[in-house]
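User: I'm putting together notes for a lab meeting next week and I want to include a structural view of one of the chains we've been expressing. I don't have a solved structure, so I'd like a prediction I can at least talk through. The sequence is below, exactly as it appears in our construct file.
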Amino acid sequence: MSKKLSTTNRIKIGFAFAIVFLLVIATNRFDKKRFETVENSLTSVYEDRLVVKGYIYTLNNIFHNQEKMLIKHAEPYSINSYHSTVNSLLSSFEATRLTSEEKSTLRNLRDNFNKLTDLELKYVSAERDTLGASESDQIKTQISRIQRNLDQLANIQQTEGENMTRFAKQSLNTSSLMSNIEIILIILVGIVVQFIIFYK
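Assistant: Thanks for the context. Below is the predicted structure for the 200-residue chain, given as structure tokens.
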């Protein structure tokens, strides 16, 4: 090969480098997109599923304790000490990414909690000797409805968490396959580039 490159060879080399450069940029963009998808899935599993599972666990404990207080006829039956905590947890829950089923169940939970609040206010403000067993039974029934809502939400978290984990694994598998394809393409492009440069 002569020391001086002809104009044709220079064009061929420039064209070859341009192809390699564009291919590297394209593969980089694809890789970045795939890793962002996996990262978003894993972040969502933590923020929208595991953290929410903690909210549900805490709410379940709160309502279970209220039920125990009612059964034991604890004096006084406390409401103010836990209402603000429940409202705060529900607001945090509502701020996460929700499925349509979650939204519906969470709305029912809110409604049931509001009904429970009304029943409790009547219960603690009324004269105890004028109250029959039916008032406390109504509160117990309402707490049971709330606990059913919480059970439904817990099941949704498990299902959605499994779906997101499966999606993240599929994305990683796709990423691994695409990386292998990219390596093969780069090798093929390298061979084509060599052919373009040295073909007379």
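A couple of points you could mention at the meeting. The chain is about 85% helix and 0% strand. Helices lie at 7-71, 80-94, 100-125, 133-198.

User: Perfect, that's what I needed.
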